[in-house]
């Protein structure tokens, strides 16, 4: 598993404003989009391309174009939706699918309750959007779901991560082509499973339910 933790003052600045409990949801949403666009730049470093011939006003030359099948962006409902605009801003030709994950209250096991994905994921590079990599349970389920459906590599883009969740995903995906791109790696999880220092409940803050 590859892990990339962003190291850029613009990203840290935007994250600092997101973390602030007094930041209202309209600002939170706008900053999330900007932040994801910056993270998408790193997340798409390995996107598959092929050579194309083009004619400039001056001469003919070769360039690179994103290959088929197009990358697939998969926001995990609900909070991952708040990251979609930022990602499609940078990769407008990507296809978008959706995954809804829910945790069984008795077993605590996450499972997929809704999905809208292309039928054929064979050979697909997938970009999963999930703002908070906390325990890692739902993100791992989503990653496994995509591999089971034929994806060849999966990159998760998260605003914040906790070491506990990162270690769990690393162990569980051993030998698979998984990349995690984080805006920051925080200290730990608290007893309620929240990332510390974190930013609170990302879905609530995005959609104004606090
Ligand atoms: N999900 C959130 O929205 N926030 C956390 O801190 C952990 C999980």
TrEMBL record:
Any one GO MF term held by the record is: GTP binding
- Any idea of its EC number? 2.4.2.9
Q: Which CDD domains match?
A: PRTases_typeI
Q: Which UniProt keywords apply?
A: Allosteric enzyme, Glycosyltransferase, GTP-binding, Magnesium, Nucleotide-binding, Transferase
Instruction: Name the cofactor(s) required for activity, per the record.
Output: Mg(2+)
UniProt-annotated binding residues for 5-phospho-alpha-D-ribose 1-diphosphate: 78, 103, 130-138, 201
Q: How is its activity regulated?
A: Allosterically activated by GTP.
The chain positions of domain Phosphoribosyltransferase read 5-209
Which terms under GO biological process does the entry name? Answer: UMP salvage; uracil salvage
Q: Which GO terms describe its cellular component?
A: cytoplasm
Q: What class of enzyme is it?
A: transferase
Tell me the pathway.
Pyrimidine metabolism; UMP biosynthesis via salvage pathway; UMP from uracil: step 1/1
PANTHER family from the UniProt entry: ADENINE PHOSPHORIBOSYLTRANSFERASE, URACIL PHOSPHORIBOSYLTRANSFERASE, CHLOROPLASTIC
Q: Which NCBIfam families match?
A: PRK00129.1, upp
Which protein are we looking at?
Uracil phosphoribosyltransferase
């Amino acid at each position: 598993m590859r892990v990339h933790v962003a190291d850029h003052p613009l990203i840290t600045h935007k994250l600092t404003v997101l973390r602030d409990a007094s930041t209202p949801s309209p600002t939170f949403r706008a900053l999330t989009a900007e932040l994801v666009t910056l993270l998408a730049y790193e997340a798409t470093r390995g996107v598959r391309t092929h050579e194309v011939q083009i004619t400039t006003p001056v001469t003919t030359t070769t360039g690179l174009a994103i290959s088929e099948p197009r990358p697939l962006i998969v926001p995990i409902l609900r909070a991952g939706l708040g990251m979609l605009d930022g990602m499609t801003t940078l990769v407008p030709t990507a296809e978008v699918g959706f995954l809804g994950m829910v945790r069984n209250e008795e077993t605590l096991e996450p499972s997929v309750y809704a999905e809208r994905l292309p039928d054929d994921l064979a050979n697909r590079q997938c970009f999963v959007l999930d703002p908070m990599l906390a325990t890692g349970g739902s993100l791992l389920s989503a990653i496994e779901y995509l591999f089971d459906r034929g994806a060849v590599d999966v990159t998760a883009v998260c605003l914040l991560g906790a070491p506990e969740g990162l270690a769990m995903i690393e162990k569980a995906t051993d030998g698979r082509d998984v990349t995690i791109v984080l805006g920051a790696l925080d200290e730990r999880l608290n007893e309620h499973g929240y990332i510390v220092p974190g930013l609170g409940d990302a879905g609530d803050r995005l959609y104004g339910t606090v």
